[in-house]
Amino acid sequence: MSNLTRTMFVAIVCSMSLLFSAPSYAEDDPADTCASAASLFKEGDVEGALEEARWCVTQLEQIKEGQTSAYFKDEINGHKGGKLESQNMMGFAMTERPYNKDNKSIKVSLTGGASGGANNAFAALASFGMQAAQGKRVRIQRRSAVVSNENGTVKVTITLKSGGMLIFESRDASEDEVIAFAKAFPVAELDDSRK
Predict the structure, then answer these.
(1) Considering the entire predicted model, what is its pTM?
(2) Which single residue of 62, 98, 112, 153 has CA 20 to 30 Å from 17?
(3) Which DSSP symbol is given to 84?
(4) 16-36 burial by CB neighbour count: b if 16+ within 10 A, else e?
């Protein structure tokens, strides 16, 4: 490992330990785990430092997922939220939650990069996809969206400024109902929280 790489590693770990002191969903505090990684590195235990750094990143991702999940409220526009699911794989994150009202279901999916670099790449792909997408173009909370209705499935796809896509999908609800639900969802707040 070069001196520059070591210096960058220590700086990143130390910065994370100072910046993130929010409560974690794991047993350890990320500030302690990040500081432990830096300490192990200074002692020459590169393997131990890497393991602690990985755990630190995992804890920080859990905190970020928890912050994002908070915008998938239990009730939106009279629709009750179902089970919230989050997945994070290969740099991309997905959060989904179904909402139900009067035997009609609308599934909300948020997809995007789990980190800044991945979000930038995802933003470029999403922008390209939105330009090629077929459907009616609308604006929802100052974000571009495409409304499509294929094979009885209504889909509203919003391109987020933060680089992700927010998709509202239903086989039961009408196009107007899905658009109204999307307008009631805290789209702008969610998007702004991810920048």
Answers:
(1) 0.64
(2) 112
(3) -
(4) bbeebeeebeeeebbbebbbb
